[in-house]
Request: fold
Amino acid sequence: MRLSTLLRIGSLSGCAALLLFAGAAKAETIDYIFTGTGTGTLNGVSFSGTFTITDVADTTGITTGGGEYRNTPTTSTFSSSAGSASLTDPIVIENTISPGFMGFGATEAPFPDESLTASVFETYALNTDLSSTSGGLSVAAATFPTSVGNLDFTTITALSFQATIPSAVPEPSAVALLGTVLLGFVAIRRRVSMHFGRS
Reply:
């Protein structure tokens, strides 16, 4: 095989592998983080001050209709001075109707939710990074089921939201493919060296 042909095959293989590798690294996981200040109880233990709700979801689970985007997290964790717990019926709701609200809630009756309002939510579709955003409150005393007992909010005096798509970790198949391509380059180099060695 001619040297130019070998080099062309090697270059094409390398480009194909890089495209596949880049595709495999695309992130689908997204973290929705609500940080607030309030009071309430977690399984009867009182908390007062800062609390966090961290929802981990997949962008492929986003649904839309009636001016709302919704996503059901795979995990939802509440943490505060009273401890931590997993919400057992979580949903993230984003309403695009002015003034736009973003909230965490539950999918079963009485459908409790706690949210904040800001104009940025009018064009946000739950599928990209969003820097920490605070706004007006749309909250009420509500109860959420958790892994350790009920989470009861009495008051929420501040609430902010941010979304983060974590850095993607390449899948093992992509790493294996890259390794195969590198071995191919080594083999081509050997053949080229042998070809010139015989000349």
Remarks:
- The chain is about 25% helix and 45% strand.
- Residues 15-25 have pLDDT under 50 and may be disordered.
- The radius of gyration is 25 Å.
